[in-house]
Every structure is written in structure tokens, then in C-alpha cells.
Please model this.
Amino acid sequence: MKIPDTHTAIIDTATWEKAQAVNEKMSKWTKNACEPHVYLFSGKLFCGDCKVVMMPHSEKRHTGKGMEDCAERRVSYSCKTYHVSGRQSCSRHGTNEEALIKLILDNIRQHAALITLDEKRMTADLHKRLIGDFSTDKADTQKQLRELKRTLHNLDLKLEQLYEDKITGAVSVDIFTKLAAKTETERNGTAEKITLLEQGAKEAITRVSDIQNWVRLIKENAAVTEMDRSLLDTLIERVEIGESKIENGVKSQDVRIIYKFVGVV
Model:
């Protein structure tokens, strides 16, 4: 049971009613507001110059009273450095999401077409770029390692013999110093070759696996027609957006697509 006017009011009734009217209006606006937009390329786009992540922007319009009536007219991205520090630090590097989606989908399908046409050549090109001269033949690598380790062992024996000859007086101190320095240099060079070969062999095996994974994923998405976050996270490491420019009346913009596993293809 409420009994009105039993205490002195902090604010008058008219002010109270105005405040409640404002609260009700704000409550309706919040209820009918559009849900927060999750941008497709958030965290994936980077400025091609300063390498800082790009900021998303959208032009929205509210077409009705419910969330189902919210509409996105246009989504774009631009350099965060430009917005935070101004043109003296970097330029805008603006890009349109719709155009970017088309570009990436086309790029994926183009690679899929090349793989379908000649998968062996595509794989060989990736091997040459990512692996270089390192052999992926396990037997060949093991043979080289055995030869180098044999050489290293012989050099160790040679050094031991030189020390014995020095102690027994079989060689002079001057001759020992020269021969020991030469042998030690040769030994260090051989040990370094062994280390590089072992590391290279491990990296080559990893790279071969990376290439196989990339080829498989591209083939699986050969007929892709829509872009979603799952596809981006599966295939794309990052995308770098260059500044747009006009040459001979033609507008262009460099876009570097860095794929997972293989980088720029």
C-alpha cells in the first residue's frame, strides 16, 4: 500500500514526470536499436605502409522499429594510424568490404584453377620458393650428414694428435699453432654445416607439410562463392592494403593476400 505525499519531495512532480518520459523514450530506442555489427575483416586487414591494423567503418540506416529492419549500406576499412595521428603519419588506405570480398574469392578460385590445371607445377614452384636448395629426400640428407660427421670426427682426431705431438716435441710450438688454428677453423665450419643441414631438413619437412595443407584447402574451396569468417580464418593470415593511386586516369590499389602456410602466392 502506497500513501503519497507523506514526505517532502526531493524534486517536484512535473520534473519527475519529465524524467520518466525521457527514460521511456530511451528505453524504446534501445529496444529497437540494431544489434552490434561484427565486422568480417576485423583483425585481418593491415595498412600496407605502416603495417598497423585497419579500422572498420559503416554507414547505417534504421528502416523500422525492430532489429530485423536494420540495414548495412556500406562497410569500409581504413588505416588506424591515419585516424589517430593524421596524414603526417600515414594516409587513409581506404578499401571497400564488398570489393575486397570479391577480390579474395576470385584469388582463391584462380589458385584452385591453376592447381586443377597443373598441380605438380604449382607444388614445385612453392617448393622452390619456400624450401629452396634444401633437400626433402631423407636418404640424401642422411648421407650428407654421415659424410659431414665423419669429417668432423677425423678433424677431432687430428686436433688430438697435434696436441700429443706438441707435448712429445714431435712438432714445434709455431707449427702446432698454425696447424691447430687451421684445423680448428675447418672443424668449426664442418660443425656449422651439420647444424644448418639438420635445421634445414627439419624446416623442409615442415614446409612440405605446409604446402600440402594449403593445396588441400584451396582444392576444397575451389567452388567457393561466399565469404565468411570461418573461411578467412582457415585460409588467410592477413591482408595488406596499399594506398589507392591514379595513373594515366586509371585508379588502382595494391592488395597483398598473405595465405596461411605459404604466404603470398
